[in-house]
From TrEMBL:
Domain named Aldehyde dehydrogenase: residues: 19-478
Protein name: Succinate-semialdehyde dehydrogenase/glutarate-semialdehyde dehydrogenase
Keyword Ribonucleoprotein: no
Gene Ontology terms: biological process: gamma-aminobutyric acid catabolic process
Organism: Neolewinella aquimaris
CDD domains per record: ALDH_F5_SSADH_GabD
GO molecular function: glutarate-semialdehyde dehydrogenase (NADP+) activity; succinate-semialdehyde dehydrogenase (NAD+) activity; succinate-semialdehyde dehydrogenase (NADP+) activity
Annotated PANTHER family: SUCCINATE-SEMIALDEHYDE DEHYDROGENASE, MITOCHONDRIAL (PTHR43353)
Length: 486
């Protein structure tokens, strides 16, 4: 790939401030998901090298945490500036290894950088308290301190933002970090490490461990008692496994897991606005986001109008390589993702759904699937309960507010939900009744650095971003200061 700064394309691991191969020289291939071309051969680390990274982070922790918040902020701010200076190159790397359109990649680079900018400042505000005492000769004080070494296991769908959303608050409060990026997208993580090194992060503070053996590396990160916090974004099944493995050392956990987002459109909604929001939420990144609209519920009074307008909008989306400027929908990440989408669409059709747009792979590339719209969806279909993670929108009809709330909450997941309507009283009722950690009201885009991101039920726990994003990387220490009598 052609980059302005070819040094950003690193293929070695980054441990203790040095670029290193696997001890046995092993590598694994990184593929362009659109063309299946091998674009890099990355160091394939295992247990021994991961232990070395954990040791480096543990050694670096005392000095990094002893710095003032302002001193850490200066380094983080420089890292943010370098990322933005190299936005185009980072976007190219992202599109080549992940597949999303370049426009989306550029947006993600800026979004990911914004977490570093935000927490560079917010880290200065990890305040404690003075609490009114229980007796006259004592004072009660709380202070907040960094939890320690943090392990971050990150997904492939947002290969920069899912790293910075975890790493920035951790570094800002004085933690050190070991990152295991997804095996499909390690190049973005390594490019971030190159810029972190250039920004002046000391050796051992930020480490990147690429691997094609996630279970082996994950076992180290969950079992090693030197790691005091694990942050994971990925599937609910994997999150539960990591939680089990972390129990032996009672790690602090943040788990951002699967979703099954409802998108509700009431009769009084702005139909054009709801259609635009549905396209924005459902089809971004080819439907491969954890907060994508997964089930579209449309009230009977506007069902036909909404379907007609959405069908036009979906039909206009262009499938192709992410490197082309007019591409709206890039490839799915791998063959398994394509197989899942095809299985869910077939099951829906077999159980009565009608395909009115798409419904089949695209001839643009081996992992491309046409943006799809299904009508007459019902709760017997697998797509009503499984996260499709592809460019497929099933539409369900409903009649009453009570009915749709029950349908929307009929899932073990609780990450994001959306609804459109104008009745202010109903807006409050529905927003409070939906069992989700995040609710978009008359908008299909809810992600921002400034707001807390996270779910409830089997979508996990913990919050990332916003002022609340610091808390998961801090512990509260209570100081009882006695003997103050004259």
């Amino acid at each position: 790939m052609t980059l302005h700064s070819q040094d950003l394309l690193q293929q070695s691991a980054y441990v203790n401030g040095e670029w290193m191969p696997a001890d046995d020289g092993a590598t694994f291939a990184v593929h362009d998901p659109f063309s299946d071309e091998v674009i890099a051969a990355v160091a394939d680390l295992g247990e021994t090298e991961t232990l070395r990274a954990v040791a480096a982070a543990a050694t670096a922790f005392p000095a990094w945490s002893a710095n003032t918040a302002g001193e850490r902020s200066t380094v983080l701010r420089r890292w943010f500036e370098l990322i933005m200076e190299h936005q185009e190159d980072l976007a190219i790397i992202m599109t080549r290894e992940q597949g999303k359109p370049l426009t989306e990649s550029r947006g993600e680079v800026a979004y990911g950088a914004s977490f570093i900018e935000w927490f560079a400042e917010e880290g200065k505000r990890a305040y404690g308290d003075v609490i009114p005492s229980h007796r006259g000769d004592a004072r009660i004080i709380t202070i907040k301190q960094p939890v320690g070494v943090v392990a971050a296991i990150t997904p492939w769908n947002f290969p920069i933002a899912m790293i910075t959303r975890k790493v920035a608050p951790a570094l800002a409060v004085g933690c050190t970090v070991v990152v295991k990026p997804a095996e499909d997208t390690p190049l973005c993580a390594l490019a971030l490490a190159f810029l972190a090194d250039k920004a002046g992060l000391p050796p051992g503070v930020f480490n990147v461990v690429p691997t094609s053996r996630p279970a082996e590396v994950g076992a180290v990160l969950t079992h090693d008692q030197r790691i005091r916090k694990l942050s994971f974004t990925g599937s609910t099944a994997t999150g539960k496994k990591l939680m089990e493995q972390s129990a032996g050392t009672l790690k602090k956990l943040s788990l951002e897991l699967g979703g099954n987002a409802p998108f509700i459109v009431f009769n009084d909604a702005d139909v054009k606005g709801a259609v635009a929001g549905a396209v924005e939420s459902k089809y971004r990144n080819a439907g491969q986001t954890c907060v994508c609209a997964n089930r579209l519920y449309v009230q009977s009074g506007i069902y036909d109008e909404f379907v007609k307008e959405l069908a036009v909008a979906v039909g206009d989306l262009k499938v192709g390589p992410g490197t082309e400027s007019d591409t709206d929908i890039g490839p799915l990440i791998n063959d398994a993702a394509l197989d899942k989408v095809q299985r869910l669409v077939k099951d829906a059709v077999d159980k009565g759904a009608e395909v009115i747009v798409g419904g089949e792979p695209s001839d643009k590339g081996p992992r491309c699937y046409r943006p799809t719209l299904l009508v007459n969806a019902n709760s017997r279909m697998d797509i009503s309960q499984e996260e499709v993670f592809g460019p497929v929108a099933p539409i369900f009809r409903f009649d009453t507010e009570e009915e749709v709330i029950e349908l929307a909450n009929d899932t073990p997941y609780g990450l994001a939900a959306y609804f459109y309507g104008r009745d202010h009283a109903r807006i409050w009722r529905v927003a409070e009744a939906l069992e989700y950690g995040m609710v978009g009201i008359n908008t299909g885009m809810i992600s921002t650095t400034l707001a807390p991101f996270g779910g409830v039920k089997e979508s996990g726990f913990g919050r990332e971003g916003s002022k609340y994003g610091l808390e998961d990387y801090l512990v509260i220490k209570y100081l009882c200061w006695g003997g103050l009598e004259k």
